[in-house]
Amino acid sequence: MNIRTKVAGAVLALVMTLAGLTALSTSTASAAPAPIKVGVVCSCSGAVGSAFVLVTDGYLAWAKATNAKGGIAGHQIDVIEVNDQSNPGTSIIEAQTLVSDGVVAVMVSSLVQQAILPVFASAGIPVVGEAYGVAGLPQNTDVFGTTDTIAPASLSATEFVDLAKAAHVKKLAYLYETTAASTGLTTSELSAAAAKVGIKLVYSVATSLTETNYSAECIAAQQAGATGFIDGGGAPSNVEAVASSCSLQNYDPVYFVTAQNWNGISAPLAKDSYMSSPTAPPFDTAIAAIKLWQATVNKYYPGDLKNPGLDPEVQISTYEGGLLLHDALIAAHLTSSEKVTTKLIIKGLYALKGDSLGGLAPPITYEHGTTHVIPCFFESKQVNGKVSILNGGKGVCAS
User: For the domain bounded by 36-149+285-366, which CATH number is listed?
Assistant: First the structure.
């Protein structure tokens, strides 16, 4: 073989080698981790659409932050968000669309979720995280929540009564809203639970999310001798309006609210209030996870945390939905080359044992064949403007 032939052969070998490397590189690039398709159902318009937008931002902020850090085991989060417009018919259509789009999990932040859960259940798609659960909703083993928002109404009774006991109140008034059934707790259920610990329910009345003046309710509660006022009036703005209305009547009872929103709280409510929520107190920055949630939301949705219409602990619950999905996939040992499926997610969810999501939630363990209710809540109080956390910051769980 002459020199020219040897050189030609060497060049050909080099070209083939380079071609092979290029093909390998192309193959490697094409094998990038597939995105995780997640559906988000939001009642982002309608009667209380603005409130749902704010709380849903918690989940969206988690998704953006997760993608910025490289995703989960390299898999980016592909969020497909739909607005059901607070309409049951629309919600079913949107849910069916998400199923067709191939989502492997959904986060629900909907006023009409009772219409859509059967759609996801029949498709085998788990709900991983949800907000504003509708009381009385049939429990569903495909709903993996981090809070008590779809728990039986009896848990709400336990929560309110426990707060009343802590405040040494013996006579209660109960105001509840009917638009979104925020607690779903009936007067008879609350009265029975209170009576067991020597507390009497002396007045109760229904209201709505659109009401802004509660003077009549305040006067009636005062005349009934109530020294404690359970305010299930809905959004923080409603809660504030109740306290302001009562203050104008020179009536300053102890308030009990299942929403820990101490940001910019009015003077009447700050006099003597007890609050609880199924998430760690949003203001407890001693918890690293609370600080991270605040920083994440402030980065991607600046202004949310200062919005008076925000239920911060409900936003935390949607943010927790993202953390729950992350932890489940890690528990399922997701790899970069593996395709994320509903079965893998469900496997991971059942593998979680006592997961508190960094301290944001009570320890979470899901059991096969049961409904997934976390019967625990955190408590705090504010007296004359001074906020304190009860029970050493640990969650209280119903027996």
Answer: 3.40.50.2300
